[in-house]
Amino acid sequence: MGRATTLKALLSTAWLVCVLADQLTDDSSTKEGANDRVECVCENRHGCTDTCSGYVCFFTVVRGFASRGCFELQQYEQCRARRIPDLHISCCAEHFCNGNLTEPKEPGQALAVSQHTLLSQSYTKNLLYVNPEDSAIMLVAVPLLILLIVAMAVCALVVWLRSRRPHYRLTHMEDHDATMLKVPAGADPTYGDIFDEFCTSGSGTGLPYLVQRTMARQISLVECVGKGRYGEVWRGTWMGESVAVKIFSSRDEQSWFRETEIYNTVQLRHDNILGFIASDMTSKNSSTQLWLITHFHELGSLYDFLQYSSLDPEGCLRMCLSVASGLVHLHTEILSTQGKPAIAHRDLKSRNILVRRNGQCCIADLGLGVIHSQSNDYLDVGTNPRVGTKRYMAPEVLDESIRVDVFESYKQTDIWALGLVLWEISRRTVVNGIVEDYRPPFFDMVPSDPSFEDMRKVVCVDQHRPSLHNRLYSHPILSSIAKVMKECWFQSPPARLTALRVRKTLSKLDQDTDQSIDKLKQDV
Q: 250 with 235: CB under 8 angstroms?
């Protein structure tokens, strides 16, 4: 036991010495590299206009979409990415040098290779540069550190060899004794641990960019759990854990690009937003597949869940509050060094909401999202030609009176759809032993696949709203939720509640319910 402790102490000391040496080297080299910045052309990138400043300039082409910008030193590894189908990246280290870079044509790859080589040499030279004023210290300290490490390694080896023989003898004598079996300390790393470690920094919510580009090879598809106009959803396994793989069809390529862009550029990690892991492109049967990898929720979408499950009033409130909380997080702009812009969903419906094991929900499918930053004064509607679901469209969308240049207009359409989702949940809530079958909004007014004109007549001309069962008004929770629904369905968009007001109302209702239950327990 004493020898083992001595060995651990020696190894810990050696490790500490290595860290100090490495830090000393990094400090001296960083002084030179910190001032070696270049001005670059910036195109098709959020957060910059025409130019940006960084360590190197880059030019990328992803499936025909070109962008230019700059990388900081910690992002330089992306310049060394191996060649991936439909992905090209070139880097250079001179002012505005990426303005003239273009995607090479086969077989003329030599230009990109030579630029990459020159950049690597420049990078290596900067890292190895030692400030002259520190050279004297380095000449003395480095040899001493090396000698100390070698001496400690020899001591550790001697201690290990001396302790090995008695340890082997003891193990050999007791190898059949079941009481001597020991469980290794700690547990094997799980998917959740690794995911949290990967995602503790950076601007995106998923894994680092280059790690994402290897995900398709690491995932095994198990079963198809859903199909739609966008493509398919599969349950896959990654590192022993289930993940959801959304495989987009080629005609919905813009949704994949948009959703990937939103997840990789903003901090969206929230309990009520579907957890993003990675996006990747892979080839199958000589065709390109677009993958979006997210957390897997075995209960499926809210639409599927309500088909076969009913709720009590408390469960209904929990679900409604979680959807409202997720929408508040989307609609809110966070101002910080790693903040997020405000996002409007534009296609909120029960099929795009997933149910978690704890009875809460999380919002998914951000392919139609609109990004707005008040601090940077920009509104990004995207280029996706797909429109939302007609059954959930707000009056101003159906009559085409929506102000497309005002971000608040998109948030107000989300509130209209939120009211319809709350209505779907309340229908499946048991009150006084009564519960209704699941039906989609306006099921009794329009066909199963309504046209744009069908919805416009019902919502805009006739101004109909989904009917509310009388039983809802006999329960305090359901009557309050019914009132919230009606205030989400005002014909005038500015008159509707905000997502924050909906959440505050439902939160207060949840707190009052908890207090009533606690008081009832005390009385009993």
A: no
Please give the structure tokens belonging to residue 425. 């949940």
Can you give 98-156 as a three-state secondary structure string? HHHCCCCCCCCCHHHHHHHHHHHHHHHHHHHCCCHHHHHHHHHHHHHHHHHHHHHHHHH
DSSP state of 271: T
pTM of the model: 0.62
What are 464's two structure tokens?
A: 């109909």
292-312 confidence digits (pLDDT tens): 999 999 999 999 999 999 999
Same domain, 348 and 281: no
182 is in an annotated binding site: no
Select the more confidently predicted residue: 66 or 305: 305
Q: Which domain holds residue 224?
A: 205-295
- Out of 295, 325, 340, a domain closes at 295
Amino acid 48: pLDDT = 75
**Would you state the pLDDT for residue 129?**
47
**Catalytic residue selected from 252, 280, 347, 365:** 347
Do 320 and 232 lie in one domain? The reply is no
Domains contained in the chain, number? 4
Same domain, 281 and 152: no
Same structural domain, 145 and 89: no
Question: Distance between CA 264 and CA 75 in Å, rounded?
Answer: 14
Q: Domain with 214 in it: what CATH number? A: 3.30.200.20
Q: Would you state the structure tokens that stand for residue 433, as one six-digit string?
A: 């032993």
The verdict on 11 and 93 lying in the same domain is no
Picking from 275, 232, 283, 280, the residue whose alpha carbon sits closest to that of residue 257 is: 280
Nearest residue to 225 via CA among 208, 243, 209, 211: 243
Question: How far is the C-alpha of 270 from the C-alpha of 142, rounded, in Å?
Answer: 47
pLDDT digits (tens, 9 = 90+) for 10-26: 555 555 555 555 555 55
Q: Are residues 149 and 73 in the same domain?
A: no
CATH of the domain at 465: 1.10.510.10
Task: Identify whether the C-beta of residue 255 lies closer than 8 Å to the C-beta of residue 336.
Answer: no
Q: Are residues 222 and 359 in the same domain?
A: no
Compute the distance between CA of residue 133 and CA of residue 140 in angstroms, rounded to an integer: 13
pLDDT value, residue 216: 76
- Higher-confidence residue of 253 and 492: namely 492
CA distances from 272 to 265, 318, 363, 484 (A): 18, 12, 6, 20
Instruction: State the DSSP H helix or E strand holding residue 234, giving kind and residue range, or none if neither.
Output: strand 231-238
**Domain assignment present for 244:** yes
Question: How many whole angstroms separate alpha carbon 153 and alpha carbon 161?
Answer: 12
Please answer whether residues 248 and 292 qualify as being in contact, where contact means their C-beta atoms are separated by less than 8 angstroms. yes
Asked whether residue 342 carries a pLDDT value surpassing 50, the answer given is yes
Give the whole-angstrom CA distance, residue 173 versus residue 166: 11
Q: Are residues 99 and 209 in the same domain?
A: no
Asked if residue 171 belongs to a domain, the reply is: no
- In the residue annotation, 347 being an active-site residue is answered as yes
d(CA 384, CA 351): 20
How many C-alpha atoms does 64 have within 13 Å on its Cβ side? 3
Domain boundary among 277, 295, 313: 295
CB-based burial label for 253 (10 Å; 0-12, 13-18, 19+): middle
Q: pLDDT at residue 362 above 80?
A: yes
